[in-house]
Amino acid sequence: MRLERTLNELGQAAMQKALQSDAPPVIRRASDPKHGDFQLNGVLPLAKQMKKAPRELAVPVAEALSAMDGVEKAEVAGPGFINLTMSKEWLARQLDGDVQDVARDGVHTVAERTRIVIDFSGPNIAKQMHVGHLRSTILGAALVEMLRFVGHEVIGDNHLGDWGTQFGLLIVGMRTFGDEAALEANAITELERVYKLASAKAKEDTTFADAARAELAKLQSGDPENRATWARFVATTRKSLDEVYAKLGVTFDEWLGESAYDSMLAGVIDELVNKGVAREDQGALCVFFEDDPELSKVETPFIVRKKDGAALYATTDIATLMYRRDKFHASESLYVVDARQALHFKQLFATARKLGIEMKMEHVGFGSILGTDGKPLKTRDGVSVTLASLLDEAETRAAARIREEGLDVPEDELLKVASAVGIGAVKYADLRQNRVSDYQFDWDKMISFKGNAGPYMQYAYARIASIFRKGEIDPLDANGKLSLTEPTEVSLAKELLRFGDVVHHAAETHQPHLICDHLYSIARLFSAFYEACPVLKSTDSVRESRIALCSLTLRQLRRGLHLLGLQVVERM
Ligand code: ARG
Fold first, then answer.
1. Could you say which of 86, 101, 120 is where a domain stops?
2. Is residue 58 part of a domain?
3. Contact 527, 450 (CB under 8 A)
4. Lowest mean pLDDT among 111-115, 242-246, 384-388, 408-412
5. What Å distances lie between residue 381 and 130, 133, 378, 385, CA to CA?
6. In this structure, which residue's CA is closest to atom 11 in ligand 1?
7. pLDDT tens digits along 176-202
8. Does residue 546 lie in a domain region?
């Protein structure tokens, strides 16, 4: 349902009729539901512009609204806004369409389809994927689903950190300290161990450091042996990463790591120089932003070539943008990356604009995950929590909670359900937050069957699914006409009506938490409705209507949870 558009049209018609004005009606949800469902605020700015008393203008608009189909009440209030209450019949009629729309549950598609690359996850070779990458992975995957569902063409790309100066140290390090079997078994852990030893040794042993530099140079100039060693590091690491992604149920359309752009870097440097975008400063090649009010205040320029001639993360990111423009013909590039890289992306986008790259670029930043003590999440021994161990723990804890709650999960399904609930809990805890804020990682709040948490949503879903099982009804056939009489039915219906707008808003502003909020509120309103209104025991058209309400609630929960990357459980 495009509720906002429908209401906007209504408001526009009223302002046109009463004031012959094309000014936007500015419709909002009522701040206090006691006064109505919506508020029309557009008269206030218009009155200011026309130098008239707002209430004087509002009165005829309210009158025009009152005369319109579906409007139960329109009253002028406060300084001159209009409180709007829609009739139950109108609500029911609007929602009927969503009930029938089994393919999309009332979510329309965008008028203009664009091609969007979403850059997410991006872990680094030889470094544990940590909880920071977890946020990127979970958020990125949700954004892929959401933007795709509203109708965009989306390419999910894992910009793996698989290139850079660390490979010199890793190659000599592996020769000196490496354990081949350990590399096969758990590449990330082994490479991380070797890297630490090698970088420590390089600090005190210049021959070792020189050897590392020599191996790096060989690798970069395409030496087949070093290339092969590097490729093995990447392949074995991918094996470990794939286990984590499989557990999370996350996939990518592309795996274009930093190494994929290596051959483009020299051309990028040339273009930066030729277009006068970059210039040398103390031996390094840099982009300065003297003309940018914000970036000119920053001390550090955007360095695209170091003094020793090496290209950097920044250079690769410029090449990546060009690739996305030329090869993917993408019109948008989103980066789901820790907010601490904000400056990097501001400088990257400004550089791209200087180069004439016409693309919508956005850094979809996010805050940190903290422990319950408010400090960055650590395990007891002080090592940053690894993602794999964290996900295992989520499953174990979920199984225990399911047993404690005495939920109806047969023993042979426990593992499967615990995985859906545990992994779902971790994802939901992350997604329900406004992404820019830090949040505390709290197992008890996360794996909870009460409150705004993943398990509660899955439980709410399973409860509604059980109604359909009991009644032997297919929720997709439940397309009876709605008639809303009880207050709890009306409240639920009003919220269900917002789903389409919520999904679009969430997708456009890259804020999955808006979907979480919606799901939480329909789950609660459904509880109230189900307590007050018998469904299967009622009869005739009332029964049909209530079954339709149950069906749409069930489907919105399912759809919403899928968009967020959570599995639903039919029975628990
Ligand atoms: N590998 C980077 C890191 O761990 C993230 C990559 C983000 N994507 C990008 N195109 N810069 O910080």
1. 86
2. yes
3. no
4. 384-388
5. 15, 21, 8, 10
6. 317
7. 999 999 998 888 889 999 999 999 999
8. no
Q: Are 215 and 171 in contact (CB under 8 A)?
A: yes
More confident residue, 190 or 115: 115
Closest protein CA for atom 7 of ligand 1: 122
Domain membership flag for residue 204: yes
Task: Give the other-Cβ count within 10 Å of 451's Cβ.
Answer: 11
The residue behind tokens 């404690």 is 404
Residue 441's CB is within 10 A of a number of other CB atoms, namely 20
Q: Measured in angstroms, how far is the CA atom of residue 254 from the centroid of ligand 1?
A: 15
User: Which of 66, 86, 106 is the last residue before a domain boundary?
Assistant: 86
Contact yes or no for 51/31 (Cβ under 8 A)? no
Q: Would you say residue 443 lies in a domain?
A: no
Residue 366 has pLDDT above 80, yes or no: yes
Distance CA 336, CA 366 (A): 8
Q: Where are the beta strands (DSSP E) in 3-97?
A: 27-29, 38-40, 71-77, 81-86
With 80 as the cut, is the pLDDT of residue 463 above it? yes
Range of the domain at 25: 2-86
Strands annotated E in 414-522? 439-440
CATH number of the domain within which 44 lies = 3.30.1360.70
* Ligand 1 atom 6 nearest Cα: 122
Domain count, the chain: 2
Cα of 90 from ligand 1 centre, angstroms:
49
Ligand 1, atom 9: closest residue by C-alpha? 159
Look up residue 257 and give its amino acid. G
Pairwise CA distance, residues 24 & 284, whole Å: 52
CA triple 22-26-31, angle to 5 deg: 155
- CA 320 to ligand 1: nearest atom: 10
- Ranges of beta strands (E only) in 121-277 are 153-157
- Quickly list DSSP for 323-372: HHHHTS--SEEEEEEEGGGHHHHHHHHHHHHHTT---EEEEEEE--EE-T
Q: Classify the C-alpha dihedral 94-97-99-103 as positive or negative.
A: negative
Query: Which residues' Cβ are closer than 6 Å to ligand 1?
Result: 119, 122, 124, 159, 161, 317, 320, 335, 337
Interatomic CA distance for residues 58 and 450, integer angstroms? 44
Total-model pTM:
0.94
